Amino acid sequence: IRYQPRSRGLGDVYKRQLVDSMGYWRNIAKDFLNERDISISREVENHLTTLNLSLSLLFLIDYYKLNISFEEMYELFNKHIIDFYSNKVNLKDNALEILKYLKDTGLDLVIGTSTNLEYAQIPVKKYGFDKYIEDIYTVETQKCPKNDPNFYKQVCDIHNVSCNETLLIDDSYLSLIHI
Predict the structure, then answer these.
(1) Single pTM value for the model
(2) Residue 13 — pLDDT band, cuts 50, 70, 90?
(3) Do residues 171 and 178 make contact, with C-beta atoms less than 8 angstroms apart?
(4) Helical (H) or strand (E) element with 28
(5) 106 three-class SS
(6) Euclidean distance between CA atoms 31 and 27, whole angstroms
(7) Residue (of 159, 172, 154, 160) closest to 133 by Cα position
């Protein structure tokens, strides 16, 4: 992806680059399955990285033939996730300074995430990212996984910018592999 400084490019800055949550997301499903004496493969972990909570839970229930309803599992995960983002997630070093720098260069910054909007908004408000970003786009709003090129194309189209003038920052190659 090419970046032209000072263009009306769209800085796609991911929440996981701003707060330290990747380990949490990798472990929540693993811990849930381990409690049931089920091991999770790296392939499944990687697949879950690109899905939102609902799609992840539906996948886990189907893939592992779990004897739990979607609603029960969602409620269990939901409580833990809200607590994590409200009380435990840490700001990454220099995150606010980087956002300010990028915003000062004239970029329109957005967050693209596989995290549900309700969870993504917690650290955005908690740490003041909303001073720098224009919007948050999620798997739900874009109606496709984060590793689908249409996710990014749709965001660029909404902001009327070319994908070639977009700076994309992500913490996982899995989201970039098909772009």
Answers:
(1) 0.79
(2) very low
(3) no
(4) helix 22-34
(5) coil
(6) 6
(7) 159
